[in-house]
Amino acid sequence: MTSFAVIGSGWRAEMFWRLAAALPDVECVGAVVRTPRELPVPTFATLDEIRPDFVVTAVPWAANPDVILQAVQRGLPVLAETPPAPDAAKLHALWQLTGDTGLVQVAEQYLLVPAHAARLAAVRAGLIGEPTQVQVSSTHMYHAVSLIRGYLGQGRGPVTVRASRTTAPLVDPLNRDGWTDSDDPQPATTTIATLDFGDGRSGLYDFTDNQWHNQLRFRRILVRGTHGELRDDEIVRLAGPRTIVRTPLVRRQTGYDLDLDDFDTDTITFGERVLFRNPFPGRRYNDEEIAIATLLGRMASWVRGEGPPPYPLADGAHDHLVALAIEESADSGETVTVDAAAWF
């Protein structure tokens, strides 16, 4: 059994200890909190009171670097919530203090979400040839950059960013707390950016305020390749001489109609090819829970020396550095270039 402690007590921390309770080889042994409170797991005032196999940081952006450093100074592997540091200076400082230890991973889960994992498997299988452009209108900042880089298979090289913002009225029927019961349009800002990675590879970033929760805006994913294109849950490709085919990615969801099994995700397929199979059948996890549980399992496997690092600090830091460049370019109206950083 591999143990971990959560640092923090918010809604994100709660997801980690709740999911760990159902995993066979990962155990949450407690939460480190600044003030005593009742939680479903034991609480501790400092890391010195507990010795887990690794820690998960689930604290605000500004606090994350110091919390990560405290764990690393104690020789503890860290799964750090995103982003690992709030700005470019603190990203570089964190890398200088912890990068050489190899102890820090980042809790970037988006490529583990079932739909994204299936799309990524399709792209890596060469179904659309070599990927050349990724367009993401779904999530914000570092998460979107992670998706773009992941689908492209792009490393941590230089990026040229051009961004702009527009504001327009939009009804916001849902937020993190649920239904707002308002149909009154309010100003919503959309940020659009192009990311040029060189060698003909590029990304398009498109995010509107609260797009995670606002169901009046579609989530859109487009991956363009040399031999075809993936759009959301469909692929068009050149399958042979004079043969262009369109094939859906199909999710098998149990529990519908006369299917009396519990409501659950089973597989996502492309024809007869299984692109994704739920690693937690019977748990009735939503997609985010599947992704986080997968991340926890991979972190535990890495700590045990049985698997690769799930998402190294260098990748999480680079994602956020590019995201900050998007914000800087949108603020200034100027082109921003992310040059070589210490973790390249």
UniProtKB/TrEMBL annotation:
It comes from the Bacteria. InterPro entries: NAD(P)-bd_dom_sf. This is Predicted dehydrogenase.
